[in-house]
Amino acid sequence: MFYIVIYIVFYPIFLFLSIFRKKNNKNLIVQTAKIGDYVNSSVIFNKLENFDIIIDKVNYNFAINEKKINHIYIINEYKKNLFNKLKLAFSIFWNNYENVYILMPNSFNLFLGQMSFAKNIITIQHYSNKWYEKVLMIGMKKIIHTKEDLTIKSYLKMVNENNIYQNWKTIPIIKPKQNLINSNKFKIGISLSAGNKLKTIDNETWQKVFNILEKFECEYYIFGLENENIYLEQIKKLNLKNPIISLLGKISLKELPFYISQMNLYISSDTGNSYIADSFNIPLINFAGPCYMKEQKPIGKNVLIIESNAKCIPFSFIFKAPYESKCNNLYTITKNQEIEIEKFITKIYKDFQF
Q: Which domains does the chain have, with CATH numbers?
């Protein structure tokens, strides 16, 4: 409601000033979600070729190395007060974008879209939009997205594309000055947790997974933040024979795609790292947990999705993702799933050996 009032107040001023803007054919993408959603939304980068982008600061190190991006706005720098929000709105307005694509349609982003006075404003109307967000969508082209729609396909519809494989996800690789990986062994990347702690796989399930992994000669590379050492300590208690190499807190975000691209297999819940692995077609085992895989999932050639056996799932969606839940046993796996995991790894491992 706040942004509707601000828009009404400033509308006549911006309408008058629009007369003095220079014409151009620039594009603007507004995607202020976290890593996984940013990676998936990159499917439209190839179609747009050159564009400006509004992102969350967590994705800055990805965006700064993307050659197709001309200018980056960090949304976090403008959200503190009304003056800064209007400053960003005016900057977007004065750039006179021809096309604005709002991939994360919250009220602030939709307000920025309206204040852009762009020729074409395209957004996603989904199942969780509030009434005031729908009001802010008036006049925009709306791509209808349901829980049954694959998010990547909805993104591509915004730029009139359909082929998700022809327009593959893009994430730049920045090689580190000193490579922490010097091995020819079968390398398995692992995320023990995520920013959303609902996506932390329990120790009992990890033990079953590592019991399978120990049948293969390999190395385990643990990805994540330094504060995830608490989970790593639990894994170390399993006394595994294969070596564990911890990368927790040791690599920068801009180097993350490089290190993940070096893996021969990646195992994770539905995390940003899993989608980075997917963007490089790294074989991937993805534990769905509370997430609805019909809406967003890895789409690479070698992906095994382990659906949750909990009765309460799914309850986490792309545009409605809780951070707390009383639901138990989200990642508990059955004997049949253990067999499925071992078969999948065996095939990948044989291909590696060949």
A: 2-157 (3.40.50.2000), 186-353 (3.40.50.2000)
